[in-house]
Amino acid sequence: MRSSRGEKHISGAERLLDFAQLEEAASGMLRRALRHPRGSAETISLTVEAQNLAEVKTKPLLRLMTCEVADWQQGRQCAAELLEATGLNPSLIREAVSQLGAGPSPTGGVMRGAILLDADTGERLEADQSRGVRVSRMDIEPDAHREIERLLSTESLANPRVIEAWVLASKVASYREIIAELCWSDDPDYLTGYVASAKNGYQRITRLKESGSEMGGRIFFVRPAAGLASLIDKLEHEPLLFTAPSGEGT
Ligand code: WAQ
Ligand code: MG
């Protein structure tokens, strides 16, 4: 689903589910798009596409942890340190964080998808800088729902936003061309974001922007050695379901 009001991106959401859940999921998406903190949508597009179950792979979610910070300045410092720990260059990180804070689309607003940033050259690799790359066709494996909600309920995080972001980040980090991801929401009332990587997991940061700000987005730091087109195709089209994280705790 994606929704907009004039030129303004309002919201988007992706699911991968059994046919029997389609009606309920679709009406849930409509409800969210119609009453959204970024404003109510004027245009809502819903795309439904059959997937071949035999082609759907299953993987474990990234390990989840939360870094508590006092304010967004401390949060961005923390994000920079977590990104550095994945081996990225500090000046590239500084540039990337300020790009996201300033509004990464060519008109200075938010994008509908993510920036793909070449980790070596700092070059933006997405073909359309207002759209970016939209990750799709991923969800929780139906049998794993209960276990995942139980893991999250101990931290009061069992809500669709956390689960959707955790699933998205786990799909992105599953490709070896991706070094790390930085994200914070474009919703004015949601200040928590994250740094995610296959190396260090899904690292939530409680404040990454000022309350009331509608600026947010996602940056994927990449080394697309095996070809950019194939990476984008997998991010957008490869169907993946997720089970609880493997190993100790969340
Ligand atoms: N693929 C790529 N980029 C996307 C996608 C997608 N499927 N969906 C959203 N984006 C980009 C787009 O630029 C949005 O403006 C931006 O991300 C933010 O999207 O653990 O709610 O849905 O507490 O507002 C993270 C923390 C919340 C959750 C992220 O993002 C937690 C969030 P939003
Ligand atoms: Mg949003």
List keywords for this structure.
binds magnesium ion, binds pimeloyl-AMP, 3-stranded antiparallel β-sheet, 250 residues, alpha/beta, 6 helices, 6-stranded mixed β-sheet
How would you describe what is shown here?
It is a single chain. With 250 residues, the chain is an alpha/beta fold. The protein has 2 domains: 50 residues; 192 residues, no CATH class. Helix content is 29%, strand content 22%. The protein has 6 helices and 12 strands. The strands form 3 sheets. It has a 6-stranded mixed beta sheet with strand order 5-10-9-8-11-6, with helices on both faces. Helix 2 crosses helix 3. Magnesium ion binds next to loops.
What percent of the residues sit in helical stretches (DSSP H or I)? 25-40%
Bound small molecules, by name, code or SMILES, are: pimeloyl-AMP, magnesium ion
**Structural domains: how many:** 2
- Global structural class: alpha/beta
How large is the share of residues in beta strands? Answer: 15-25%
For the termini, the CA-CA separation is 29 Å
Low-confidence stretches: none
Identify the strand order in the major beta sheet.
5-10-9-8-11-6
Overall 3D form = globular
Count of beta strands: 12
Quaternary: single chain
Radius of gyration: 17 Å
- Overall average residue pLDDT: 95
Can you describe this structure in just a few lines?
The chain is α/β, with parallel strands linked by helices and 250 residues long.
List the SSEs and their pairings:
Layout: E1 2-5, E2 8-12, H1 22-34, E3 43-45, E4 57-60, E5 64-67, H2 72-84, H3 90-102, E6 115-118, E7 138-140, H4 145-153, H5 160-173, E8 178-184, E9 193-197, E10 201-205, E11 217-222, H6 228-237, E12 240-243
Parallel strand pairs: 4-12, 5-10, 6-11, 7-12
Antiparallel strand pairs: 1-2, 1-3, 8-9, 8-11, 9-10
Bound molecules: pimeloyl-AMP and magnesium ion.
